[in-house]
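DM between two lab members

TW: hey, do you still have the Glutathione ABC transporter permease GsiD entry open?
JB: yeah, one sec
JB: this one, 285 aa:
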Amino acid sequence: MKRLSKRDLAAAAGVAMIAIVVAFALIYPLTPGYAPYAQTLADAFTRPFTTAHYPLGTDSLGRDLASRLALAGRITLGLVLVIVLVNAAIGLVIGTISGYFRGIVDSLLMGAADVQLAVPMTLIIMAVSAVRGPSVGLMATILGLTFWVGYARVSRAVALGLSSRDFVIAPQLLGAGSPWVMRKHVVPHVLIPVVILATADLGNVMIMISSFDYLGLGVQPPTPSWGLMITDGQKYLRQAPYLTIVPAVALLLVIAGTLLVSQRFTASGNGLRRSVRRRDIKEPA
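TW: and the structure you got?
JB:
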């Protein structure tokens, strides 16, 4: 029986961390006590694990902390997935086209990427929020359209290296169109590092979203998010520290889990690239 390596064990631990939080966010809303917005001032500051009705306690307004934690998890995790997927898709398309065609196309697209990279996202969100007012939709739109540069650079580097390979040139000489060549022989190679980068970016995007929520630039009350719950809990840090600790632990579990899983994906990426390369070499054009 093959023994698991330390990297495999760490990845399994990361998956378990993420699974615990995701399962709680998905399953707890199905329970009878789920009420993230219900207020009972008489039950305010109920400590965790002291009553079955409020398993994680209540906040300053007597709202069920477990219900709000589950709803905040669904909102935060959903935003992270959408933002990462949108940016990965945009970056993959732009980077692949840039590296494959090179020349003027490469200069224009990478020039746009350099301009995008020169403007900090935080300043964009703060400036637009000052004009339009802060909202989760505004934050998600800006992050969804301004975080693609890293994916584009990685995609371009891979596509640029493949553009002179025999299995890419041969179909072109036989009359194959550029869309077919890119889809068949370029995108499979580009997709592997993009997926690895996206896995690693899940934690980074979650930190950014929580930071903007913490600053009041994202999700607005009474809708909960993990960053907003940490902000609200800080007001009662001496009286009820669990209001800050509970969402912070959930955030920590997901971020640490994604980092552990991404390390395993990075290690296995070389093997995936070799298998795709062997397929391109053996497969007739």
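TW: got it. The chain has a mean pLDDT of 84. The domain at 6-34+44-282 is CATH 1.10.3720.10 (MetI-like fold).
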